[in-house]
Amino acid sequence: MKILHTADWHIGRKLNGFDLLEEQRHAFKQVVDIAQQEQVDAIVIAGDLYDRSVPATEAVEAFNQMMIALNLDKKIPVLAISGNHDSSTRLETGGPWFEHTQFHLHTSLEQAFEPIEMQDTQFFLLPYFEPFQARRYFHDESIKSLEEAMEKIVRKMKKKFDSNKNQVLVAHFFAAGSQKSESETLLTVGGLEAVPVTLMEDFDYVALGHLHNKNALRHEKIKYSGTLLKYSLSEWKQEKGVRIVEINAHKVTQAFQKITPLKEVMCIEETFQTLMSPDFYKNICCENYIGISLKDQQIIPNVMAQLRSIYPNIIHLERAQGREVTKQKQRDIKELKSLDPAALFRHYFKDTTGETLTELQEKVMIEALLESQKKIGSEG
């Protein structure tokens, strides 16, 4: 069995106000091309089909066209689940009809226990859920955590295992590895606790969605696919794409296929003068989504408007010095607390502007502080 594992499409998402539907359609076409080149038997989408529970009309239309192209035109089976960004109620509409074209979309916990069987593989499609849904399904008020729920869910799924077939779990949650890093210790994502990977190791492959980094979990057969696109500036160094997974007699081989974005997400740290220089920006795709960190200390009038004349898709602008002060030159909190209001304001003004107060500014500041102290005294 050969599958393409993808997740977290977030159709309809915006990047700091910029519409990404064109980029999402561009990425989807590459998914179809990869699926055909690799001759996969099915495509797995591990949740978060949409970015919002009530997606915009344009997002719904885009996703519908994608499924028509993939499932009806190309005749590729699709196995999908709802994620925490999706509305399971809205997604389940039409589900029984979809199955006639091998588009299996599971949106409720009850559906997870009847595997979809294709060739030599059983697929258990577990949509995003919360512990209260497991309590209601199992009639067990003792279930308080996601881990406790998953213990019961996996136990029930295993009763359906066919030893002559491979087993694949498709799910949407945060999975913690047995070798816990600092980020995995007591970490919650989406309000839920982590699920130990040990609970899922009886499956031949676990196709996960929820975390956007394909390397969020280091495990031989439990994998995140990551997103098709970079959906925040924090993801700018991440490689995006899909996983091609082949399962044969309980043995798994997998490879990652990159998706080339229509516009890249990138960060630049430079001075304003350099950024505005043709010698600099001629070597950059200025249409990219760019986060800019200015090295300049002085205030630059209309800085965003000037920069956008060259870089129209700026998604973030900050002062590099401000970040360095925050990260590297942070004053001791006790020292700051010991400063009187006037001294504290002088520090703030210097950090913000890079300059010291003039005599006139100093006089205005002192008068303002005295006036505020009088007001506080009269109110007390």
Automatic annotation (TrEMBL):
UniProt entry keywords in alphabetical sequence: DNA recombination, DNA replication, Endonuclease, Exonuclease, Hydrolase, Nuclease
User: What is its biological role?
Assistant: SbcCD cleaves DNA hairpin structures. These structures can inhibit DNA replication and are intermediates in certain DNA recombination reactions. The complex acts as a 3'->5' double strand exonuclease that can open hairpins. It also has a 5' single-strand endonuclease activity.
- Tell me which species this is from: Vagococcus entomophilus
Q: Which PANTHER family match?
A: COMPONENT OF ATP-DEPENDENT DSDNA EXONUCLEASE, NUCLEASE SBCCD SUBUNIT D
Please list the residue ranges annotated as the Nuclease SbcCD subunit D C-terminal domain: 263-352
**Quaternary data:** Heterodimer of SbcC and SbcD.
Q: What is the lineage of its organism?
A: Bacteria, Bacillati, Bacillota, Bacilli, Lactobacillales
Which branch of life, at top level?
Answer: Bacteria
Its gene name is: sbcD
Q: What is this protein called?
A: Nuclease SbcCD subunit D
Q: Name one GO biological process term.
A: DNA recombination
Q: Say which family it is in.
A: Belongs to the SbcD family.
Which Gene3D superfamilies does this chain map to?
A: 3.60.21.10
Question: Molecular function terms in GO for this entry?
Answer: 3'-5' exonuclease activity; endonuclease activity
User: Which InterPro entries has this protein been placed in?
Assistant: Calcineurin-like_PHP, DNA_Repair-Maintenance_Comp, Metallo-depent_PP-like, Mre11_N, SbcD, SbcD_C
Domain Calcineurin-like phosphoesterase span(s) in chain numbering:
1-213
